[in-house]
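During the reporting period the student researcher (J.K.) took over the structure-prediction task from the postdoctoral fellow and processed the backlog of single-chain submissions. One of the processed entries is reproduced below for the supervisory committee.
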Amino acid sequence: MIIDEDWYEHTIIDHLVDSMGYEHLFGPDVRRSSENYQDVFIPDVLPEALSNVNQGLPAKAIDEAILKIKNIEGGSLEQRNEIFNDYLQSGVEVRYFDGKEERNEIVRLLDFNHPENNVFQVVNQWTFVEYSEKRPDIIIFINGMPLVIFELKSPSRVETDASDAYLQLRQYMKQIPSLFVPNVFCVMSDMTETRVGTITADEDRYVAWKSVDGDYSETKNASWKTMLDGMLPKARLLDIIQNFVCFNDTSEKIVKILGAYHQHFAVKKAVVRAQDAVAGDGKIGVFWHTQGSGKSLSMVFFAHLIQKYLESPTIVVITDRNDLDDQLFGQFTRCAKFLRQQAVQAESRQNLKELLEGREANGIIFTTMQKFSDGDEPLCDRNNVIVMVDEAHRGQYGLTETIDENGKVSIGAARMVRRALPNASYIGFTGTPISTDDRNTREIFGDYIDVYDMTQSVEDESTKPVYYESRVVALHLDEGALGRIDAAYREFADQADEASIEKSKHDLGGLDAIFDTPETIDALCRDIVDHYENNRADVLAGKALIVAYSRPIAMKIYYKILELRPEWKEKIGVVMTMSNQDPEEWFDVCGGSTHKKEMERKFKDDDDPLKIAIVVDMWLTGFDVPSLSTMYVFKPMKGHNLMQAIARVNRVCKGKEGGLVVDYIGIAGALKQAMKDYTNRDQHNYSNMDIAATAYPKFVEKLDVCRDLMYGFDYRKLIFTNSREALADAIAEGTDWLLEPKRHEDTENFLKQCQLMNQALSLCKSLVSEEDQHEAAYLSVLRVQVLRLTGRKGNGGGGMTYAEFNKRVSDILEQTVHADGVINLFDKNSVEISLFDEAFLQEIAGMKEKNIAVESLKRLIKEKVRAYQRTSVVKAQKFSEMLQNTLNSYLNGMLTNAQVIEELLQMARDIMKDRDDAQKLGLNDEEMAFYDAITKPQAVKDFYNNDQLVAIARELTETMQRSATIDWQKKESARAGMRRAIKRLLRKYKYPPEGVDDAMDTVMKQCELWADTKIEE
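J.K. obtained the following structure tokens:
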């Protein structure tokens, strides 16, 4: 059995057919509406399926709906896909004449309530022609519409993986965009890795579906089958299409969202609990999904789905701060089409009452907690009100009544809300856990509905881990000052709402004398600038937040950093609330609301010069910038406030190892305390985030492992030099040493361990000595050289692009010499030129580093052989066999370095000679491939002169260009027609000559290869 892409394709098809009852269709056998292969839909399925779904509607209505979905015009693929998605979820509005009058109806494309009324088909090799001709591996059609597209890669080929499938999907979207207009989501898989995503998703936003039934305990064992069983049972797929796909568009771009597995199962659990709560005690429960894992979108999915299961509920969304209200409201506003209604914000308690009283059902109303404290009369006594509370874990949600020393009575906010909405049901959403001693939260909401903790989120790559670095010592504070900071931490309460701010100011007021001195601000800013420039400026987009102790201190930090770096005027900015009493010069820096929106736009743009934002309270919750990787903390925080703040740097971004929190205030104890309420495995994995105890030891360990693997090559005496040439020689010699065949296993291990060393270094660079950084950079260059020379991406070892490679070389040279003139044998654009350049071949032959010479020649020849495998049957077989035989002899010790180099050089020259022969014959590459095929049997040249052979080759090429049709290699009738055309031509030349029985077989193979390649192109 050959375990290749074709085998994997049929394995998936068999599973969908045998386990889920899909019907299998072979694409080339499906009747198309014309010969141009531009059918997006299956012609014989769509009309009948829609008639079955819409029983009672006349054919005219169905025909009008089909016309509309076939002709979604104008705009980008994303815009057309958004329109089609609305048709899928809500139906198609049609207007038609029934013979008496014009009528309006809605034609449903899917029957969500009765899955068995829909037609589910899995189709492989469906050819589609638009800007070019393409053939996706597998498409799932429902009612004749292509809703899920698979792109697969062979489980057994090392050189391709799921990432290649992603790139191919992106190419399809450019070349055959119309096939993706109805698409719900795409799947990319190489069997080892299976991920799903939408047409707008970057590769890092394609995620694994890791559960079949909502159990998270076995997610580490998730496989390609988990995704099939978890997403593609008929009822489940329809549920996902209807309830877990939405558009979250911004002014800059269209963003299509597919709910992740943890969102899907958690929301389904929440809806069941809501149904019970409305009929019972009103306690739906607490929905705890760690920060950064999509809690806001889960709230949208819940608000959408609950409308289906409850009788037209009114949804009240409560936050405790105006900026959070705006952020969450913005999320719901962007998803208004999906929610089928526009959310509104209550401007006051009276307005909230009017919004509630003015309806008996429906509506999504946003309000802040403060609006419930302005009175105590009921606002609404209906029981079809669902209250969704954001960040439902804070002290102000209490039910108790307290009296202070002045006799002032304070009533818990939850009690106020319950008094205002006495018959409502309550669900709390939080990104941090409920404190173990917080009875209030459980009394209000009930127990957890679903827990998706930090460990699970990082494992799923929904978020990245956060690390911590203490630099308090950089402020040069004395022991007394440090003691006062610790004491203040023990004293101050969580800052939760506006009512507690005065208390927290009082608790921390004594720290002003420490934090607000010119000496402290100067030391702080100098250290931030130094740390950022040397360690963080080149991490991803270089985005960083500075969290300031107070608004005045935020401004002092801004002015001081600009004093130190005047050229940073566009690089740094301040985002904070302003009042009319603030100094006029602050307004020049901070502006008003439009300024904040502009700052947010700029900070979220990776290419914008704004890299560093100074904040006080804003942007510390609900603010997502995936590339943000560094946070400088100069503000006391604890508990959920601290955990929410540091989660700003945990978002997923390509190339991101984790977020780094740089501490100037002493938050280590607060971090450990906050982790006590997390799950046991979170405490085990993340209770110590300090890079000095995590990333740095890992770096030292992996550096030592790499040193051990390099034992026998004393590179350390070579690399600490000011000579660019000496360092370049050390790189070449080290690479050559690693490429010695007898070290193959050690070299493979070195590649993996060096990558792990790099990952740790990216987080703890500020703790690593210049000497160790230099050594690590040198080892990393060797790693990339080996990967490039052997033509690999690195796979599990994390291959680099050429730009990344050049950056790595620059890193090592920064500490020694300028980077111009670095060795560049590996420029991908020079590969073919080099192979046909005799001077270059001589240069390779004369290299001192013989293993590099072998790998360079081997790679160049392999790439040419791969090219022949797409164009010439004869040359591919000839040079593939020659290369394999030579390498086998080399690896078995039968050839020395010098001998294998000579054989590879001769092979390169043979390839050059073949090209020269074609030029002498006046044949192009296609014609030469046919010439090689007809002349492969030696006896052929005894029967024909060379002019005849050239004529046959040219005419064969012309015949193929005329007779190769779409799907020829899939349809036996087309294959037979091609064979007849070829045989007629060859009979004219009396080919093959008598006795040369295998000649025709070679020619036919070449014709098939030519047609295959042309069709794919």
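The committee noted the following: The two ends are 29 Å apart (CA to CA).
J.K. will present the remaining backlog at the next meeting.
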